[in-house]
């Protein structure tokens, strides 16, 4: 697989675009993780509510169990204290709900911060690089085949080259039809240059 062009200017521009894509990806991941960590700090009040609710429930349950031993009014007092235990459970549930909400918010914010630029690169940069790699690999393979490869490259140049350029060289089509090696080599050079590859000598 040929990832970079032979021609220096195009190779440098491809290398810089790859560095830019990597930098954007790394920055997106770092920013997403940082935002996730910052948002997760908002769960502290929820943790406090869970701890307070659990402590309140344990306190009222312990007091209710002790109240059961009080003669005459022990049962009534225990039931009243268990009501306080229910309030502790609700308080802890509210804390857990807040923790879940913060966790979901942190995840989706981090996901969006990472996914948006990475998706943009996947839609724009990656197809261009993949298309170049496929074409350049095929072009380099044809270049290495010699005469047979030059014939295919010349044919490709005739079909892909701009008409004004072909019109200025009227002997091109005739030379290609007659299998003139000079014309075929020139057409192959056109196509290889268009692919960013080093032209044959």
Provide a brief overview of the structure:
This protein is mainly α and about 200 residues long. The protein has helices at about 10-40, 45-65, 75-125, 125-145, 145-160, 165-170, 170-175, 180-195.
User: Structural class of the secondary elements?
Assistant: mainly alpha
Globally, the shape reads: rod-shaped
The amount of beta strand, in percent, is: under 5%
Biggest sheet features:
none
Number of E-state strands: 0
- Summarize model confidence as the mean pLDDT: 80
What is the gyration radius calculated from CA atoms? 36 Å
Distance between the termini: 23 Å
Low-pLDDT residue intervals, each spanning 5 or more residues:
none
In DSSP terms (H or I, runs of 4 or more residues), the helix count works out at: 8
Helix content: over 70%
Encode the helix/strand succession as letters. HHHHHHHH
Describe the structure.
With 201 residues, the chain is mainly alpha-helical. It is 84% helix and 0% strand. It contains eight helices and no strands. The protein has helices at 8-40, 44-67, 74-123, 125-144, 147-160, 163-168, 171-177, 181-195. Helix 2 (44-67) packs antiparallel against helix 3, helix 4 packs across helix 5 (147-160) and helix 7 (171-177) crosses helix 8 (181-195). The longest helix is centred in the middle third of the chain and has 50 residues, at 74-123. The protein starts with 7 loop residues before the first helix and ends in a 6-residue tail after the last helix. The model has no long low-confidence stretch (mean pLDDT 80).
Strand and helix layout:
Blueprint: H1 8-40, H2 44-67, H3 74-123, H4 125-144, H5 147-160, H6 163-168, H7 171-177, H8 181-195
């Amino acid at each position: 697989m040929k990832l970079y062009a032979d021609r220096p200017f195009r190779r440098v521009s491809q290398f810089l675009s790859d560095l830019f894509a990597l930098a954007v990806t790394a920055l997106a991941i770092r920013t997403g993780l940082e935002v996730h960590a910052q948002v997760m700090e908002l769960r502290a009040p929820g943790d406090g509510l869970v701890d307070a609710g659990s402590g309140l429930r344990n306190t009222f349950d312990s007091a209710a169990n002790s109240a059961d031993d009080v003669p005459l009014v022990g049962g009534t007092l225990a039931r009243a204290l268990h009501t306080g235990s229910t309030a502790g459970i609700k308080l802890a549930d509210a804390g857990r709900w807040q923790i879940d909400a913060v966790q979901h918010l942190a995840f989706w914010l981090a996901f969006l911060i990472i996914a948006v630029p990475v998706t943009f690169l996947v839609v724009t940069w990656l197809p261009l690089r993949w298309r170049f790699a496929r074409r350049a690999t095929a072009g380099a393979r044809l270049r290495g085949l010699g005469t047979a490869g030059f014939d295919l490259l010349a044919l490709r140049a005739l079909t892909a080259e701009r008409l004004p350029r072909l019109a200025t060289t009227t002997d091109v089509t005739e030379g290609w039809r007659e299998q003139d090696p000079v014309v075929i080599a020139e057409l192959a050079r056109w196509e290889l240059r268009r692919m960013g590859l080093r032209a044959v000598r």
